[in-house]
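>> received
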Amino acid sequence: MTTGHFLAAIVAAIIAAALTFVLVRYLDRLRKRDAETEAKKIVERAEREAASRLREADLEAKERALQQKAAAEKEMSAVRDELRERERLLDKRHEAVEQQADDVRKQERIVESTQRRLSEKLEETSRRGEELNKTLDQQRQKLHELSGLSREEASGRLMKMVEEELSQEIGAALTRHEKRVAETCDAKSREMLLIAMQRYAAAHTAESTTSTVDIPNDEMKGRIIGREGRNIRAFEKATGVDVIIDDTPGVVIVSGFDPVRREIARQSLDTLIADGRIHPSRIEEVVGEKQKEIEQFIRKKGEEAAQEVNVQGLHERVIYMLGRLHFRTSYSQNVLRHSVEVAFLTGMLAEMLGLSGDLARRCGLLHDIGKAADHELEGGHPKIGADLLKRHGEKPEVVHAALGHHDEILVEYPYTMLVATADACSASRPGARRESLERYIKRMEELESIASSFPGVEQAFAIQAGRELRVIASARDTDDAKAAKICRQIAKAFEEQLTYPGEIKVTVVRESRFTELAR
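>> returned
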């Protein structure tokens, strides 16, 4: 490459560089102008937005001010209305006060006028009284002169005549009223008793001293009797009843005067027949279970009776004793049903007389509670029942009703008389009682009570309708000679203390039993 070419290239490069610089400066100037133009636009746009927002803020402020002004005007209007209403009420009260003041002034004028008239009448009355006294004195003086009697003598004769006449009239009037009251009371009492007895209509009761147990076949009779009679002897010893097995097909009869024992025996025999295992140890086990079940049943019966007559808050012991009445009879009448019936009748009579029906029903329900323990304690059932109820916190009215419902003491509370009345109504209605059964049960109880009083006797059971007494003597406290002596003493006590037809067989059983477990 020549020098010319080299220089031309340098010149071209310089020119190109110059043109590039000029072009760059021109482009920078154009960008700067565009940026200034854009900045002006942004500023203008910002100014417009600011102006718009200022106008909106002014409008909102004006609108808020208008709303506040309207609310203030509304509140002011309400205050003005309230003030006007108060002003109106004040004006009305002021008018009323003025009217009352006018009325008071009128009343004062009337009172003043009335006082003047009364004063005038008092003066006139006083004047007439003085004239009357003078006239009476003159007439009295004339009467004294004509009769020749003093004032005291005349007054005495007059009072005597008046007393004689009044005494005769009073006596006749009292006699008439007493007769009328007696007739009315008699009619009312009959009506009340009839209404109460009609409102509560109870079924007539009749108890039996035997229970029948069905058996699947006659072979079961032999199993019940056992080898040489050991099963039936063990059963009768455990339950204290008499098991009658005769030619009657399909049944075995359980006989006993004590309903609790008879029911335990009946249920135990049902269970043994259904189970099929009948031997002495199984018999004792089943009888023990049934005794526990009967205890629960007794408590349930007491609770049901209390709920039936709506008597609340009874002590647990009282409820249990009440349930025992289910197995007691009085002249064949079930004592628990009799107590419920007396409770209803007493409550109805009390409500008719305006007394407390709840308290009356409580008195009626518990009046015979002593019969649940009269064979265990000394004394009649009224005293036993009253002591039992008093110990367990019953009210004096309830205690007194149990103590005096047979009219053996002075009646202090009306509820006692109502209970006695209801008791008589329940016992005297047709079919309620049969005296023969009661005498039979009393005889059975006396037999067992006499035998149990001898030392060394554990249990005593009257069987064969009272013709035989089976006594269980303690093997630990007696020997054979002593057991024979006890047997003779019991028989002699029966002869001395009881009156009975025929003869009574006394059997004393003494045995020793030993049990071991093989493990």
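>> The two ends are 137 Å apart (CA to CA).
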